[in-house]
Structures are given as C-alpha cells and as structure tokens.
Amino acid sequence: MSKAPEEQQKIANELKKDGYSDIVIDHWLNPRNFGRMEEFDGYSDKCTASCGDSMWFWIKVNNNLIQKASYVSDVCIGSVTSGSILAEMIKGKTIGSALRISKDDILKELGGLPVQFVHCAKLAKDTLNMAIIDYNSYKSTPWKRAYQKS
C-alpha cells in the first residue's frame, strides 16, 4: 500500500486493537501478488461474494505445478488478505493440491479473520477454483484461447 513507515505502524496498531492477526495486518499493508497477470494459463472472471466484494484470479502453470498466481479484489481487508495468502499458498503446488485447499486452510494461514470477513476466504477459494477450471478447459486444446473474449 506504499505508506510511510510511521503511517503503516499507526494502521497496524489500530488493526491489532480491532483483533486482526499480525499475518492479516502484514498482508493488508503489503499484499502479495496483487495485480493482473498478462501471461496466464488459467483465469477466473469476476467472482462476487454475497456482500458484493469481487475477485479475479490468474495462474501460470508448468508441468502441473502452479508457478505464479495473482489476483485483484475490491479494497476490503478480508478479500485482499485472503487473495494474498492464497496466492502464496498455491505457488509450487500441483493443481490437485491447490484444489484441496479449503477456506478453513486460508483462515488458518491468516491466523483468522473477524466473523464479518470469514466469507472472504470462501470468495478467494471459489475464485481460484474458477481459474483452475479455466486452466483445465484449455490445457488439452490451447489453441482455443485465441478465440476467448478479452
């Protein structure tokens, strides 16, 4: 989020008072893999949670291993941190291993989220699943991607 160190510390202190874990605070202030991926093998179109938050996910795969992952989400602490930690969790994993990650695994890696943001872990997982479905649908017929809508 490129804020001055003193401003980041002030934000971190406020979030700690609100009960956020150090991991959530770190991923909120320094999100990993945030942004659109230009060269990808799997992509999820907009996935929207019941609260209205949206997320998109991209994966780059080589020999069935996820090499890179990125996401974009609304600026909500729950969705940004869930996307950030999930993108980190799946790097180097097989597609099958990534599919087995649950929303509870995401919440555990984050050290939990307040109840009003727990659904964001499910949003991240659902969005990743859509990117994997996209990857699988083009894996055997990569020439079809040329006809995909941009």
Q: Topology of this structure?
A:
Layout lengths: L4 H13 L4 H8 L12 E7 L5 E9 L2 E9 L3 H14 L4 H6 L2 H8 L8 H21 L11
Antiparallel strand pairs: 1-2, 2-3
Helix pairs in contact: 1-2, 2-3, 3-5, 3-6, 5-6
Q: What features would you describe in this structure?
A:
The structure is a single chain. The mean pLDDT is 91. The protein is elongated and about 50 Å long. The chain has helices at 5-17, 22-29, 77-90, 95-100, 103-110, 119-139, and strands at residues 42-48, 54-62, 65-73. It is of the alpha+beta class and 150 residues long. The protein has one domain: Sufe protein. Chain: A (Alpha-Beta Complex), CATH 3.90.1010.10. It contains six helices and three strands.
Following the backbone from N to C, one meets helices and strands in this order, namely HHEEEHHHH
What fraction strand? 15-25%
Number of domains: 1
Biggest sheet descriptor: 3 strands, antiparallel
Give a short synopsis of this structure:
The chain is 47% helix and 17% strand. It has 150 residues and is of the alpha+beta class. Helix 2 packs across helix 3 (77-90), helix 3 packs across helix 5 (103-110) and helix 3 packs across helix 6 (119-139).
